[in-house]
Structures are given as C-alpha cells and as structure tokens.
Design brief:
The protein is mostly helical. It is built from seven helices and no strands. It is rod-shaped, with a radius of gyration of 34 Å.
C-alpha cells in the first residue's frame, strides 16, 4: 500500500463517510425546514396582499360612489343657484368636505379633490403591493433553501453510494470528495440565503 493509496483510503474511510452522511442529512433537513418556513411566510404575505388589494378595490368603488354623490349635489346646487336659494343651500350643505375644499380653492373637482377622495384606496393599494413584494422576497428565500437542499441531497446520495463501495475502489474516494465539495457548496448556499 503506497502513501497515496493510504491517504485516499483514509479520506474514503467509514468515519469520513459517516460524517458526510450525517452532515448532509442534517443540512438537507434544515434546508427543507427553512424552505417550508419561508414558503409559509410567503403565503401569509400573499394572502395579506390579496386581502389588501380587495379592500383597495372596495375603497375605490366607495370613493367613486361618493364622487357621484358630489357631482349630483353640485349639479343640483348649480341648477338652483339664483333660482331656488333654499334648494341650492340644501345641495351645498351636502357637499363632501373634499368638494368644499376644492371649491375653496376656486376649482370644483380639481386634481387635489380626486387625490383626496381616492387617498385611502391608493394607500391600501400601495400596502397590498408592499405585501406582494415581501411575498416575492420570501419566495426567493424559499427557492434558495430548496437549492441548498437539492445540493445536499445529491451530496448525500454520493456519500451513501461511496459507503457501499469497497475501500480499495477509487470511486469511493472520488464520491467522498464530491460529497465534501457538495457539502461545502450547499452550506455556502444555505448561509447565503439565511443571512440575506
């Protein structure tokens, strides 16, 4: 037995392969758990985004209905102005605060009026897409953990197969080396996603 053969035999020893199997199994399980957690978080953000988007749509419709009421009140006011002051006063008394502020700016239904009427809807819409962005970020984390799990699983297969080979078989050393490299790459991928 040469010194070179002795080093390969030690590197492919049952102890080393046992370590590889154990480490890769733990890394695979941990990456799987973290992928599951990231997936749950992504689903939660996605559901919250859906809820907020539906609320935004509801608020948009509500604001549009109030704008229609304001247009109706303003039309009634304008038609009755200098014709029937009592009716004109009735319509003016029912202006929304936003319409009254718009008239105080000497411009009925200006851009500020629309911004004010749709402010709640716009804010909820922005919150919905912020939640969707969080869901996408968690989805990317989930994919990163799944990649780490895949790499560790392949490394686990190599180390398990190496342990079945005769100690003098060169493939045992090669598979053990591949397993070490995949362990390092999987750990690097896992940590890169975990700390990001």
């Amino acid at each position: 037995m040469t010194a070179e053969t002795g080093k390969t035999a030690r590197f492919g020893s049952n102890l080393i392969l046992g370590f590889l199997v154990s480490a890769l199994t733990v890394l695979t399980a941990t990456a799987n758990y973290m992928a599951f957690q990231a997936g749950n978080t992504a689903s939660g953000h996605e559901a919250e985004g859906d809820r907020l988007l539906a609320l935004s749509n509801t608020e948009y419709i509500r604001a549009t209905q109030f704008i229609i009421v304001d247009y109706t009140m303003f039309d009634g006011f304008y038609i009755n102005l200098d014709v029937n002051d009592e009716a004109a006063d009735y319509y003016a008394a029912n202006f929304s605060d936003e319409l009254q502020a718009s008239l105080d700016r000497d411009s009925a239904f200006d851009d500020q009026y629309n911004d004010d009427m749709y402010a709640e809807s716009d804010q909820t819409f922005d919150e919905a897409f912020a939640s969707f962005d969080k869901a996408n970020a968690e989805g990317e984390r989930e994919a990163g953990f799944q990649l780490s799990m895949l790499i560790a699983g392949v490394g686990l297969a190599f180390s398990a197969y190496a342990s079945l080979l005769n100690e003098k078989n060169l493939l045992r050393f090669v598979f053990a080396l591949i397993s070490f490299l995949l362990l390092a790459f999987s750990a690097w991928q896992f940590l890169g996603v975990f700390v990001a």
